[in-house]
Amino acid sequence: MDTRITLHARRRSHGAFRPLLIAIAAVFVLLAVAAWFLIVQPYQAQMLADAGGHPSTPVTLTGKSAPPPPVNVKAMGATELLSEAGKAVREHRLLAPAGNNAFEFYLQVLERQPGNPVATDALRETFPFAATSAEQVINRSDFSEAQRQIDLLAKADPTNFTLTILRSKLDAQRKVLDKQQQLALDQQKAQELAEQKAAADKLAAEQQAAQAAQVAAQQKAAPARTPTQANTPQAPAASQPAPVSQRTEAVLVKGAPARYPPSAMRAQQEGWVVVAFTIDTNGETSHIEVVDAEPRRVFERAAIEAVSRYEFTPAKEGNTPVASRQQQRIEFKLR
After folding, report:
1. Number of domains in the chain
2. What is the Cα 206 distance to its own chain's centre?
3. Which of 86, 121, 177, 236 is the least crowded, having the fewest Cβ atoms under 10 Å away?
4. Among residues of the chain, what percentage have pLDDT more than 90?
């Protein structure tokens, strides 16, 4: 009897203890939420304020002139660099312009003071906004600037998966632009060939019309023949104009690979160059000019040197070698 009473009392005590546990758990949850809003979040805000603010949305400085970079940045201390970085963040200069942006200032702080908490936290907090800014540059097809900004992001956080996305998008945009430019070149070449054919057909038609008119005039001017004249040998007919000679285009006999510029190889840069050049009657190239290139002032010299070593079978008018003009697109790929 006493045992049943004891078990019943224990069950009642356990049933009363459950609401108490729930109440205690609720109190801990409320304390955690209050700690987040009252302690953690204000601390992060203060850290960002010390770093120069937190941009709510990435803003580009299109149409606004960027302030001049500070003088003698290398001589600045960590405090001065953090001040410049904070100013750049407030003015939304996260990655640009080169040499006067928040990420470069913060990275220089970390070079002087590895593990500096303000610079480290600021780079981590502003990384998503800087990545969005780099994506906007890619969308504007400013590929050289986009590559520079991606490289700067990689220095701040080399393992961030966002870098893989940005690099893939940059590569895809470059390929799209290359295809568009190649299509434009093909269309231009096809149009030029069509114009050349139309001009040749027009010239042939004009020559045929002139020959027919000449024959008709000769027949009209010739006097009627008498029977005696009909039996006399006639003078040989006037020689007909020589047919229009056919033109053959120049054919590449010996090409030459373009030497990859060492500076571009070190920087992992790729690109292309379109050059126009003259093929002389001896099959050598001359008057080499750069029509277009991406990026600029990186691969042009290597492309010109390669084309200067080309050898051709010259174009011919009939059997006579003649000078001609061609264009060539040279790709520079690391793999």
Report:
1. 2
2. 48
3. 236
4. 55
Per-residue pLDDT at 21 = 81
Per-residue pLDDT band at 37 (split at 50, 70, 90): low
Q: Which of 164-173, 178-187, 306-315 has the lowest mean pLDDT?
A: 178-187
Residue 289: per-residue pLDDT: 95
**Closest by CA position to 153, among listed 138, 181, 133:** 133
Euclidean distance between CA atoms 139 and 135, whole angstroms: 6
Rounded Cα distance between 90 and 252, Å, is 58
**Distances from the Cα of 326 to the Cα of 65, 108, 122, 251, angstroms:** 42, 49, 54, 10
CA distances from 245 to 248, 317, 318 (A): 10, 6, 5
Peptide bond into 295 cis (omega under 30): yes
Q: What pLDDT does 23 receive?
A: 84
Helix (H, G, I), strand (E, B) or coil at 29: helix
Q: What are phi and psi of 257, to 5 degrees?
A: -70, 145
pLDDT band at 20 (very low <50, low <70, confident <90, very high): confident
* Domain coverage including residue 254: 246-335
Tokens of 192: 């030029």
Residue 25 lies in a domain: no
Q: What is the mean predicted confidence (pLDDT) over 185-196?
A: 89
Given 148, 175, 203, the domain boundary residue is 203
Q: What is the CATH number of the domain that holds 318?
A: 3.30.2420.10
Same domain, 83 and 135: yes
Of 73, 164, 88, the C-alpha closest to 126 is 88
Choosing from 203, 220, 254, the residue where a domain stops is 203
